[in-house]
Amino acid sequence: MHVVHTESVKALGGQSLRLIAEARRLREAFGYRVTVVGVEGSEFHRRAPADIDFVPFRFPAHGPQHGPVQYLRARRLLRRLAPDVVHTHSSRDAWVFGVAARMLGLPIVRGRHVSKPVRGGPLGRLVYTRLADTFTASGPTVARTLIDGGVARSEDVWVTPAGLDFERFDAAARDPDFLRRELELPAGARIVGSACNLRHMKGIDVLLAAFDLLRADEVDAHLVLAGQSGAGRFDEHRARHPGRVHPLGFRDDIERVLGGFDVLAMASRSHEGIPGAILQAMALGVPVVGMDAGGIADVVIDGRTGMLVPPEDARGLADRLASVLALAPADREAMTARALALVRGDYGLDTVVGRYVEAYERALAKRAGRGA
Q: How far apart are CA 369 and CA 25, in angstroms?
């Protein structure tokens, strides 16, 4: 089978990185041919690995996001690629390649990665009701937005969070002192970390405010931020906490970075699926404090597999981070063991990719039935 994934996200972040891992596993475990169509000239395009069949496409930078010219260009590309299934992932590509795939009679799987309610009236909902045969959703909460929003039936939705490669994210191989060595911190330093594209919806300003309240000097706490951000964004906080705020930028060795955290903080505001960094930290045995936003509560069960804080609550986040850092070793190990059992049970890469295959087969069957 040949699957074409389309993705109009430009950044090399969680959504595009998981697509790379999933494309590889579809090829290696199922023998599929996989092509990824992404934004020409984007960071994803520039940094896509050589073993991924990446085809650049010019999405409009300004003006209407889609129109006849875009549809015809996308149709021409799909005719050349000749896929069996088209799997769309974001708004612009879902419209452009959804219409193009319909022109060619191709089955469409629509990936949904955010928990934002489906709105937009009848026209805005067409991308779900007419330009998709089945759906993949990045967590149970995301799936419910499709079903409760009336655009998908439960039998056509597969829950597919970012799948974990347990050989890469292995708690037994974790090096908890990796970052202390890299950043030349004292052995007793405590590392609060976050890993994401450092943008507004991720609540990085809330995390910085929480760090201001943490009394970092008293507990020798350091804040480590892994992910893309604008130059100079953290200068004010670095000046306020000399030697304690450490932006790392994008990291290819995220398993080592996450494994070096004493606690992962995810301060997202809203509309999250299940952030991949949370699942990865849990697989590595790192405790998690997250905001109760979107699908985070699907895996961060307060007091059981992590700790939850209401969105925007910097004081609450600071208090919960301090509580985790003060946990007795036995309590910490019990929490991380429950989290590890959760992700090992349902969030492995093979499990997620297997659900992709089921969604593809269902989409193929539905289109064949309509054709007949």
A: 29
